[in-house]
Amino acid sequence: MPWLSWAGGINRVWFKRKTDPETLLRDLASYGEYEGAMDMYREFRSVFLTTDEGKRVLSQIMNWAHVMRSTADPEPIQMGILNGERNIGLKILSAIESEPKHLPTKARSR
């Protein structure tokens, strides 16, 4: 993946093993999409809210995403970049905080 060439020869430590970004992304892509909204809700809450480490990681992501501060910038391109980063943080918060409604599996008849 040429767009990852910025990583050059830097090795990343992921779960105590060295890996390059291409390998990590390939591994992550193998998981696919969630079966349902409730599965995503439960896993996000489990990852981010059950341990101090998860809360610390969530705090860092929210900091990177500018969730707790303004994204206003006099440069329109920079403001668009900041708003895009903020959008990802808000999506993560939404996945954690918005419990999906249970839909009935079959209609009731009278």
List key phrases describing it.
110 residues, mainly alpha, two-stranded antiparallel sheet, 4 helices, 2 strands, extended, disordered N terminus
Mean pLDDT across all amino acids = 83
The CA-CA distance between the termini, in Å, is 58 Å
The major sheet is characterized as: 2 strands, antiparallel
Number of helices: 4
Oligomer: single chain
H/E topology pattern: EEHHHH
Query: Are there runs of 5+ residues with pLDDT below 50, and where?
Result: 1-11
Strand portion: 5-15%
Give the overall form.
extended
Radius of gyration: 18 Å
Protein model, in words:
The structure is a single chain. By secondary structure, this protein is mostly helical. The protein has a domain of 64 residues. Strands 1-2 form a two-stranded antiparallel sheet. Strand 1 and strand 2 form a beta hairpin. The longest helix has 22 residues. The radius of gyration is 18 Å and the shape is extended. The N terminus is likely disordered.
